Amino acid sequence: MSAPVVTRPYPESNIGSNLASMAGAAWVARRLGRTLVVDWRGLSQLRDASLNYFTEFFATPAEIDGVRVEYAPQVEVDEEAARWLDAAEARAVAVGAAAVDPGTPVVLQAYHGLDRVHGGDEPERFRLLRRFYRYIRPAAAVAGAADEWWSEHCEGPFVVGVNVRTGNGAYFGEGGTYAGRVDISLFEDRRRFLRLLDRACRERLRGLPKPLRSEYVVFYATDSAAMSELLRELPNAATRRHTFPPPGAGDLYAFGESGYSDRDSITDTLVDMFLLARCDALVYNSSLFNQYARVSTGYFGGNHVHFESLLLRKRARYLMGAVRRRLG
Fold this sequence. Notes:
By secondary structure, the chain is an alpha/beta fold. Helix content is 36%, strand content 13%.
């Protein structure tokens, strides 16, 4: 029997990228005819490094899209005997351009989403990712918290989801790990940014009968207390999360003081992720956190918008890039 493929994220990675990586690992395992082992131990958001984040907070399917799935620590892999592959190497092995002995475990740690390991076109990757997300379900406690909140605040009316990733003072500023990925300059003029989001939300209502356009809810999810305070001013706004990492701490902070635990924080994060997928439309910026919602809903039937795309300077930059690509 072949040794498994292990998906083992870096401690400093977060839920969106970890799920995307798990999808890529499942595809590699399927190509190689191997079992997939999910080993999400040691993630920085959990104080107990021995706990597997996935098995603690998600349902644990025995199979995903034809791939047998097992979980650490019930299944342990000799990491010293394993081949640790980056995404390019995993892709080469999966398509037969390189080889790994069937008896040698393969460990994937650096981001290994389908966009890195799968060589097909975007529609094919979308189909694979959508099939994968159909197997991703919350554990009972997370599902119960989501059901309870949604029933009280969002059951019935048209719901526009808003997801604003700020980095909470980390990642996207000058010199940050992901500088420029999110345009944080938009957040400087708070009134102007709020007007942009309000306009984007109202545009999501255009297809509704007129009497329904005033009876809507804006469910918002964000990663910082300051942004949450601002988004609260959107018309008909509702949110669930009220405790955030300290300013400047990013989104990987491990809580544990003042009666709010690391598990509470993770539950709040995951409930937000699953609630976004219940919305009828989405306004968002770049983040793998909202990929589950976008893909599992089929991009909300087209009723979604990346709010940075509404800016004239962003449109001009995109058009110039398209022209250069054509000329090139």
